[in-house]
Amino acid sequence: MNIKTYTESNREAWNEVNPIHQKHNPIQLSEAFQAKGYSTLDEHITRTFLRLGLQGRNVAQLCCNNGREVLSLVNLGAQSGTGFDISDHAIEEAKGLATTSGLPCTFVRMDVYDIDSVHSNQYDLIYISIGALTWLPDLNKFFKIASTLLKKGGLLVIYEMHPMLNMLAMEDEPEFEDPMKIAFSYFKSEPWINNIGIDYVGNTTYESATNYSFSHTLASIFNAVIKSGIHITEYEEHNHDISCIFTHLEKEAKLPMSYTMIGKKA
Questions:
Q1: According to the 3-state scheme, what is the secondary structure of 38-101?
Q2: For residue 48, what pLDDT band results from cuts at 50, 70 and 90?
Q3: 4 phi/psi in degrees, rounded to 5
Q4: CB neighbours (10 Å) of residue 191?
Q5: Which element (helix H / strand E) includes 151?
Q6: How much helix, strand and coil, in percent to the nearest 5, is found in the chain?
Q7: Which one, of 143, 63, 73, lies nearest residue 108 by Cα?
Q8: 1: confidence class by pLDDT, cuts 50, 70, 90
Q9: Which of 132, 152, 151 is closest to 224 using CA atoms?
Q10: Separation of alpha carbons 17 and 10, rounded Å
């Protein structure tokens, strides 16, 4: 199956779920972002961005969903923000939030694999956050595009779920026996295929459009970033969960649950 078949199926699934997320979101973002300095970013990544410096930077987020993190980065001091996402509905929500907040943010409905040269060398920082990489069938192509978007010396910041968690089954899966028992191969190469919805906000299930997600090893992520011409300067693993799936395992403190990777374009 080619990349476009995967991504267009996922586009349909994200268009289905975004109205469900809006319904279940406990925060009215259109009101929240009218407050100066409001941010949806957690304490760890906020400290990271403030340490790296946002002032005067043009930032972009690939797979930005409804734009809340792009808006947060600008509220924290970035000069401007641009978000790219495949979901028509999510981008419409993001545009609405930008309008009501008055923040200098632009949102583009686009498959990240189709981002063209008009955006090349435009950004000082690119952010990739939780849940982005799993939807991407080809990391080498993705990070090559991300690299072209960065100015020379620009920063790549990734804050994602640790790939080791892909080995664990969730309670509603037939492979589940124990929360800590390995159920799937770390080296799983075929995609996960889902038809019961992707509502991680309300945790509802429904008959959804077929969507495809992918397991990526740390080696595949590291190598794709390196091959893109981005030099990895920092890597840190964390024992806190940012996936909203495995929070119940935080108390075990036995697994890396998330990570931060920072790179700089040569």
A1: CCCCCHHHHHHHHHHCCECCEEEEECCCCCHHHHHHHHCCECEEEEEECCHHHHHHHHHHHHHH
A2: very high
A3: -65, -35
A4: 16
A5: strand 150-161
A6: 35, 25, 40
A7: 63
A8: confident
A9: 132
A10: 11
C-alpha dihedral, 105 to 108 to 111 to 116, nearest 10°: -100
Residue that the structure tokens 């279940």 belong to: 24
Domains detected in the chain:
3-162+217-265 (3.40.50.150)
Beta strand 192-194 with 211-213 is antiparallel
CB 262 within 8 A of CB 233: yes
Q: Is the dihedral of CA 85, 91, 95, 101 positive or negative?
A: negative
Alpha-carbon distances, residue 83 vs 35, 92, 135, 215 (angstroms): 20, 12, 16, 24
Q: How high does pLDDT run on average in the chain?
A: 93
* Angstrom distance (rounded) from CA 188 to CA 207: 25
